[in-house]
Amino acid sequence: MTDTIVVVIGAGVSGLTSALLLSKRKGYKITVVAKHMPGDYHGEYASPFAGANIVPLANDAGKRWESETWHELKRLAEDVPEAGIHFQSFPVHAFSNIPWYRDLFKDYRDLPQSEVLDGYDSASEYTGVCINTAVYLPWLVGQLLKNGVVIKRSIIKDIKEARALSHTGQPASVIVNATGLGSLKLGGVRDSALYPIRGQTALVRNESTPMVLCSGSTDGPGEELYIMQRAGGGGTVLGGTYDVGNWDTEADPNVASRIMSRVVKVRPEIASGNGIAGLSVIRHAVGLRPARKGGVRLEKETLDGSTTIVHNYGHGGYGFQSSYGYAAGVVELVSEVRKQQKGAVPKL
Q1: Is residue 348 very low, low, confident or very high in pLDDT (cuts 50, 70, 90)?
Q2: What are the FAD dependent oxidoreductase domain coordinates in residue numbering (predicted)?
Q3: pLDDT tens per residue across span 32-84
């Protein structure tokens, strides 16, 4: 069987992870094409701004994606320190009952009411991971380069253009669409089910463990409380907001003040008891989570007689923690396409 020519559009965590798992299989020539790359900071490129951690959000029917991802991230934290992932104890405070993932973590425990923060119904604790995205995303790129994947920048207005962007000079027989919110306006896709969830955070030099995540806050709808210390000197992410439908990528100083106030209230030691003034801010940032009505789109679509699109987008705020699961799903779909196209030679 001849090599299958694959073009992956998008270099966020979903695109890079999909390309990585494909690159570990024989018989593929892979090119990653994207407007934004690791090292870039732009609100529409959400991956660099993520916490990023493991707090399973899927329902029981969709737990495969996060379960598979947890096991791989756990392996990386144990065996591949250069990936920028470390273990962190993680209390989670919620307004609802504890979900299915109590069986995913060996040290999972429900916290007694005396340890639950005021205003929340319940809390649990387990050892998860936190990812330094400034290290991890470039690490993914390095793994791709080692595996022979070619990466290049381009702005694509219509998905059909990707067919001619393989580094091999041959037309792609598979296009993996991992453009996130870009699929809202991408010609040939224009998925109106996509919408942004604005997330504002502060990145500080102060260290603080264990991590904390609270589902919402008493400051009102769309405002949250979380503290996530990144691996490898990556600072601590303070959050945050969950502002559905908001496209504004500029940090709001009033929101920033409320975020930091919430953090120093529940954990004054992070600022040595000096309140907001004790926080050493690296930057305030805004990222747009790529959410989708109806959930993630993971499916095949025929572009023409010789090219198939495999979509993988719409992960909202759980792109990192479901990245390997959905990427495995991409590999399965691409493998099906490869079998169907066996012996076929695409023509421009």
Answers
A1: very low
A2: 6-332
A3: 999 999 999 988 899 998 888 888 777 777 789 999 999 999 999 999 999 99
For 246-301, write each residue's pLDDT tens digit.
999 999 999 999 999 999 999 999 999 999 999 999 999 999 999 999 999 999 99
The tokens for 1 are 């069987």
Count each helix (H run) and each strand (E run) in the chain, helices first: 5, 15
Q: Are 199 and 240 in contact (CB under 8 A)?
A: yes
Strands of the sheet containing 307-313, edge to edge, are: 150-153, 28-34, 4-9, 174-177, 307-313, 297-304
CB-based burial, 86-124: b 16+ in 10 Å, e otherwise: bebebbbbbeeeebebeebbeeeeebeeeebbeebeebb
Q: Dump pLDDT digits (tens) for 164-174.
A: 999 999 999 99
Cis omega (within 30 of 0) on the bond before 210? Answer: yes
Q: Which band of pLDDT confidence, cut at 50, 70 and 90, is reported for residue 182? A: very high
Sign of the dihedral through C-alpha 295, 94, 319, 190: positive
Q: Which of 29, 1, 12 is nearest to 317 (CA)?
A: 12
Q: Rounded to an integer, what distance in angstroms lies between the CA atom of residue 204 and that of residue 134?
A: 14
Q: Closest Cα to residue 314, out of 162, 160, 158, 179?
A: 179
d(CA 78, CA 139): 16
* Residue partners of 177: CB distance under 8 A and separation at least 6: 9, 10, 159, 183, 186, 189, 309, 310, 311, 312, 313
CB atoms under 10 Å from CB of 146, counted, come to 9
Question: 203, 48, 202, 12: which is closest to 135 by C-alpha?
Answer: 48
Give DSSP secondary structure letters for 14-42: HHHHHHHHHHTSTTEEEEEEESS-BTB--
The Cα 242–Cα 244 span in angstroms is 6
